[in-house]
């Protein structure tokens, strides 16, 4: 049952990253792919109807994590306190920039909110990427299950770990490029005209950069935590994830070269699913590794809720998931196809 709940928590996180990740990418790129107010309206319309609904999966991830692994959530939230507040502020500013920017009549204010939108999404990608790097590498957890670390370090390879150090910054850069490529592929799929053409050009360049950075970050992950490689090689789910990455990479290449937009977009989603699946399976059962001493690490079996709590959660979680997924599918089908600014804009811009 504990393994099943680990997979469920991972599933919620994967859904959020795949869905909101395309909004991050579109936000980071919208100042580059859209050069007129009408074109920017087109970009906002591509994400406007669903951006807030994607955050439901982030809330669901937090709720599921609290229900299944409460001790992990208590330890992680206290250690990542500053980073979590920054993420919260960025989410707020992203939402405000979309909502308020659409009501600004002065062009200067519109440009300000455009910049806030791009900056907030960029910082979100950096923070989530750095958080992923910290989970893969580990944090200085003590015998009490607590940890604290500096926000910045001296960035030396053998220096002290921090929320932002040489490794986590590397992972953050990779996350930014990956989500930007994902967003460009989504905009190519959803838009038309000059925005579509520029998005297609950025998608090809960014995915090429992803393929360059992926082996570098993988090697760095092996350097900072060699045991992960052995765990990955012995975990069948990791091999499934690698297969998904390989097949989606081939489909992505085919879709981008032949301008088969739907193929490229679907492959982009599965590429991210494969990456996250490999990362999550490689560290199991340790959910938060201690760089001080391995015995201080927080494993899924040590931080899970009691059996009765997991049984109760097994009843309400499928119901909540089915309702959320059903409504999301219903709304997504309504906004399927290319963007119609008059239909999809909804007053955002």
From TrEMBL:
UniProt keyword list: Cell membrane, Electron transport, Heme, Iron, Membrane, Metal-binding, Transmembrane, Transmembrane helix, Transport
Pfam families documented for this protein: Cyt_bd_oxida_II
UniProt-annotated location(s): Cell membrane
UniProt topology in membrane: Multi-pass membrane protein
GO biological-process terms attached to the record: aerobic electron transport chain
A Gene Ontology molecular function term of the record: oxidoreductase activity, acting on diphenols and related substances as donors, oxygen as acceptor
Bilayer-crossing regions: 6-31, 43-68, 80-100, 112-132, 166-185, 206-224, 236-256, 263-289, 309-330
Top-level division of the source organism's lineage: Bacteria
Gene Ontology cellular component annotations, sorted alphabetically: cytochrome complex; plasma membrane
Keyword Metal-binding: yes
Family under the similarity heading: Belongs to the cytochrome ubiquinol oxidase subunit 2 family.
NCBIfam families given in the database record: cydB (TIGR00203)
Protein name: Cytochrome d ubiquinol oxidase subunit II
Organism: Granulicella sibirica
């Amino acid at each position: 049952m504990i393994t099943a709940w680990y997979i469920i928590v991972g599933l919620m996180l994967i859904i959020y990253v795949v869905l909101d990740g395309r909004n991050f990418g579109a936000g980071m790129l919208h100042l580059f792919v859209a050069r007129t107010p009408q074109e920017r309206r087109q970009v906002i319309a591509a994400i406007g109807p669903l951006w807030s609904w994607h955050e439901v999966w982030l809330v669901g991830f937090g709720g599921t994590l609290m229900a299944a692994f409460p001790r992990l959530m208590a330890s992680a939230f206290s250690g990542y306190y500053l980073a979590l507040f920054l993420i919260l502020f960025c989410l707020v500013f992203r939402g405000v920039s979309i909502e308020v920017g659409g009501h600004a009549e002065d062009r200067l204010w519109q440009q300000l909110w455009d910049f806030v939108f791009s900056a907030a999404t960029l910082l979100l990608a950096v923070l989530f990427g750095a958080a992923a790097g910290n989970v893969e590498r580990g944090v200085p957890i003590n015998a009490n299950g607590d940890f604290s670390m500096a926000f910045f370090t001296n960035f030396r390879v053998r220096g002290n770990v921090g929320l932002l150090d040489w490794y986590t910054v590397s992972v953050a850069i990779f996350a930014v490029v990956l989500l930007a490529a994902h967003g460009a592929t989504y905009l190519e799929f959803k838009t038309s005209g000059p925005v579509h053409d520029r998005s297609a050009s950025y998608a090809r360049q960014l995915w090429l950069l992803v393929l360059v950075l992926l082996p570098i970050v993988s090697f760095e992950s092996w350097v900072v935590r060699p045991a992960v490689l052995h765990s990955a090689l012995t975990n069948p789910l990791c091999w499934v994830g690698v297969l998904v990455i390989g097949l989606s990479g081939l489909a992505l290449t085919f879709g981008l070269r032949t301008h088969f937009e739907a193929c490229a977009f679907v492959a982009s989603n599965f590429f991210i699913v494969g990456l996250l699946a490999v990362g999550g399976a490689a560290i199991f059962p340790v959910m938060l590794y201690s760089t001080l001493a391995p015995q201080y690490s927080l494993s899924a079996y040590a931080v899970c809720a009691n059996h009765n709590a997991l049984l109760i959660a097994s009843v309400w979680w499928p119901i909540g998931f089915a309702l959320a997924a059903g409504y999301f599918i219903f709304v997504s089908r309504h906004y399927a196809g290319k963007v119609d600014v008059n239909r999809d804009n909804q007053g955002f811009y």
